[in-house]
Structure formats: structure tokens, C-alpha cells
Amino acid sequence: MLRKRVWRKAAGDAVSWHQDESLSTTIFILKEFGPTGFLLKEDGESKNYKVFLGDPHTCNCGTFQKEKDLCKHICWVLMRKFRLPRDHEYCFQPGLVERQILEVLQHPYKMASAPSAPAQLCSSEEDDGTIRQKGISDDDICPICQEELIRKRLPVAHCRFGCGNNVHISCMKVWADHQSRSETDGMVNCPLCRENFGTLKMLHELVKNVGQLYTTSEREHLEKHLGIPCNNCRICPVVGKCFKCTVCSYYHLCEDCFKRSCHPQHSFAVRTKRNQSWQLMMENKKSLTDDQEVCTNIDTGVTSEVVPEHVLKILPVTQVHPSSRLLERGIQCRLCLQSFRVGQQVKILPCRHKFHSGCIKTWLQQSICCPVDWHVIYNPLTWSGNDNKPICTSTRTRSAQVNLIHQQNAELFVPGIGLQRKERSDVSKLAPQPPVSLESIVQNTRALSIDNTQSAMPNSCESSSLQRTMEGSRRSQQSLFVGFSNHDNESQRKASSLRGRIRPLRSSLCGISPENSTIRQVDENQKHLAVTKAQHTH
Fold it and tell me: pTM for the full model?
């Protein structure tokens, strides 16, 4: 059979570049035209593309129309849909004849799946009138984006009225939008069995609930190595190329510090994105350039850390109760892709992702990163035992109030009536002090009273003695005021001038009325002594 295009023995640079581009791009299958025709939609773009396999392959994208060669959409169909290895001879050919296409359809090639977390599969309860969800294995893929479900770790939904297979919720939203269902209670067809997958209203509810699972760190660029600081300049996180010592645990360098040979005694491994594996580097790293860099895909020789046992115990754990929001549709563990059930233990990581305790414990015994956003959980330079302890707002407010009261008590000064201050080291043990009783205030004030109740003076000596006593009493009355603890001469002069205005404040602070206070009794005694003196003089 004659071919319209020349048979290639190896992939060119342009084809290899398009293959890399297709593997790093999320593309959805919106419709299939037979076994070899597909309507594709690229994530983030509104335009759809039609791809047909044959001799030659065709695509209506601008790249294919310009180069007349394999584009990323054709490469995606060959490597994602039909699972051809990128080095297979059929994968870089500009076209395939009918016999070769039939061979690809009847004998699909399986790519070696990436190592995934040993998930703890939790069977979900069967809903009334619907099909039970099928279990998810490592080889299961989404029929729309052709990504492995366990490896992608996106929330899934299952076909409730047909096959029971699982599909990414985000992919089903793209699939439903293409079907253009205008009815609110309309049904969405399953991309596998073509039966009713579920209602459009239910799908919108799933999309809304799934938004709660995504965190801020998950939206960060992959060039940011979250949770990894540079051991030399202490910048955190390292952005761009990150270098890891193959001997020292938890030792990382940024690109600038690595070029200055800050740790020359050991070799290093490098990675550009946080979701990539570490790749060994060449020995002459002092003269490192982009052209001289040599890496291997083998992770041998790189020390792999795990989360210590004491850190695992510190991570917060919550139990699912009947009214928990974790029971809403679409909320699920991102490792086993199963919903949460009442009574299960859920562990929360510092990046705020939630997993089944059994699932995440098994994962953290083999890795030090979050399985969703690859945020490093433990690093000695940044780890603190209080990172996961919630801050109690009431305790913090109470502490501020106690400090304010202590500051005011230090400035408040009442001569003769000492303020009882009880200082304690632990703020949480401080209890509100009981109010001062009226009897204690009266007793303390009586101690200040002047006992001069004599009604008569026999001679002038006694009169002069009485006059000196009254002057001393007036001076003691002037010193009895409420003010600040500044005992300089200027403050005393101001205090004596403000004696009349401060006296009502003194009564209010003591918590008693002027009629019942002992201070008022002292004033009345003073007036009585003045009358007695006048009578004695006459």
C-alpha cells in the first residue's frame, strides 16, 4: 500500500517539542467522530479543535495549518487517548495507514503508570435508586481528559444511572457545557455508557462544593518550591531551580547560592518544579550553565526524607460528625478519592488539605510532601511545634485586658489604701478578682481617721497643741487624694489645688456614697472641733 507521507525512523526536534507540550497541557475530549475523529478543547481556551487520524493526520489548529506536521493536539491523541509511548514508531509518524490504525485500536499500548500512594479504599454508601460507585484502581483514567484518576488527584463523580464509572467533576462540567443543556432539571449523559450521568443541578452543586477543597498553595506556580528554604541565604520558598544535597538531609540551596559553591563537599540533585523528581547532576558543578547541565531520570543516590513520628502526632485530627461539612457531595479524600463518612478520622496538613488519617499516614511514611500541592510538610529550618495549634482569640483578648489592668494599677496611687496586686506568670490561670467589699474599705479608712474628739481645753497650752493638731490633720487630709504615682513637688502642689474636685472621684472609686463613708465622718469631726475651739475662745 502506497503512503502519502515518508516513513520516519526517528522523531525530529519539532515533533519532540510538540510531544512535551501535549503532555504538559490539559485537553478535553468533547465529542468523538467514530474511532479516529475527535473534537478537542484545550484548558483555558474557548476554541475547539478537530483531529482526524489517517494518512496523513489532520488538525484545524493554526500550528498544523502552518507547518503541515504533527501538532500538540495530534500528539495528545496518540499518547493520551491511545496510550502510545512517545518513542514508539507510530507516535511520530505524520500519518498511519488503515492496517496500522486498526492495530492501534485493537491492541492499545499501556504506559507504565507512575508510583501512586497506597490508598485506603473506603467504600461509599449506596444511594437510593442510583448505581453504586465503582472502586478506583491505579489504571483507571478519566474518559474526558485521559488522565489517571489516582495520579491526578482531582475530585471525581460517578455515573449514577448507568455504568457507575468515575469521572473528574471539572471535566464533567466542561462536558455538560458543551452539551448546552438549558433545562435546570436536565440530565447530563455519561461520556462512557451514554446513559444519564446525573442532573445538571446536581453537577452544579458538586462544582460548588469542590471549590472548598482547593487551597491557596495549590494555586501557586509550580516553580515555587513550597516549604523549602535555602540553607545559605534562608530565602523561603526557593523559586526556580532548587538544589538538594545527596548526602545531607534537609539541605537545599537556591540557584544563586549553588553557583557560589556554598556546599562544595557533596554532590547535588536538581529540579525546576516542585512536582518533579530530583535528578542527579554532573560533578563539575562550578562551571554550571544551561548547556552543560546533565541530569538523569534515576533518583538513585538522593536521600529521601520522611515526616518524623513526633510531627505526625502533632498534626491536627478531627472526627466527622453528622452535621459536618465534610459530608457534602463532592467533598472527598484526595488520595483514595472516596467520600468521608460519619465517625472517620480526618487529618489536616499545614497546607489545609484534609485526608483520611489512614491514607495520609501511609503516604507520609514514604514522602515528606503533600500529595496534592507538593508542599513540604517538615523542614528543621521552618518547622515550629505551634504551626498547627489554633490561636484562641478569647485567650489573646483576655491577656491584653489583664496587661492593661496591670498597667493602670501601676499608675494608680491611693495613699493609705494599698492596691493588692497579684502577679501570676500564666495568663490562662488568671481569674477575675472579686470586688472590694464595703467593710474592708471602711476599716482601711478608719485607720486614717484622726481621733480628736475632745470637747474642752483647760488652758492655752492645750489650745496651741490643739491648733497644731488641726494643722497636721489638714496636711494629712490634703495628701489623701487619688492621682498618679509621681511624688515630685509640682505634682503635690497641683494635687492640693484639686482636692475639692477629686473628692467625688475618690468616693466613686471606693464604691460607697459620701453619706456612709468614713471620710465624710472625718470632715464632720473637723467641723465639730472648729466649733468647740470657737466656744472655748469665747
Answer: 0.64
